[in-house]
Structures are given as C-alpha cells and as structure tokens.
Amino acid sequence: MTKDKLISLNLVLLEYSLYGFAIAYPYSVKLANASMIGIWFFALLSSPFPSKIKRLKENNGLLLLPLYFLLICIGVLYSKNVPYGLTNMERLLSFLFTPLLLGTGENISRRILKRAGWVLTLNTVFAAFYCMFQNVLY
What we know:
By secondary structure, the protein is mostly helical.
C-alpha cells in the first residue's frame, strides 16, 4: 500500500471510530470507551509526532481541556472522598488525550468532526425521546 492509501484508510477508520463513539455513548459506557481507544489510536497515527508538537504550539486552545483535567487531579489531592475523586478522574481521562490527539491531526477535516457531532447530537436526542416514551408507557 502506498502512503496516501494508508493515510486515507486511517482517516476512514478514525471517522468510523468517531461514529461508533457517538452511537454507543448514550447506551453503553464500555462500548464508548472501546471506540474512544480506537479514536485515540487512529488519531495518533493521523500525522507524524513532530508535526503534532508543532500544531500544539500553534494552537494554545487545545490545552484548555487538559488543564481542566489537571485541576481535577489537584482537586482529588484535597478531596475527603478520594475513591469518588479517582472514579471521576478516570471518567474525565478523555479530556487529557482527545483534544491533544484530534486537534493536532493534519488530515482530520472539519467535515468529519462536524458530522460526528451531528451523529452524537441526534443519537442523544433519540435516546432521550426513547427514555421518555418508555417512562410514559410503563
């Protein structure tokens, strides 16, 4: 396979991993976590590492969510309920990696991210209506 075909295959797999996350998130956290690992893996392969560092230096906004995660970690140190803090920290681990990996990819288009956002939004609305319907029915 040529390099261009590998890049396009990686982008297709990244896009479908994003869709998998968007569909699985309202229904199953375990499936959403599995697709998040796929997102991280394919986003890591989306561009060379020195290029990711360069884009990270150019776009300081990508550091906001990892800084929020750092504040959560500091909060756990001062918490009286450490097990809850560690569980919360584990749940928010995606704030650390996702912006750094998705935001620094050269080949990830806004179209893919916008479409994945729409899939997540529509799927969440569907799940909410389904839950309301089940609540009224039973």
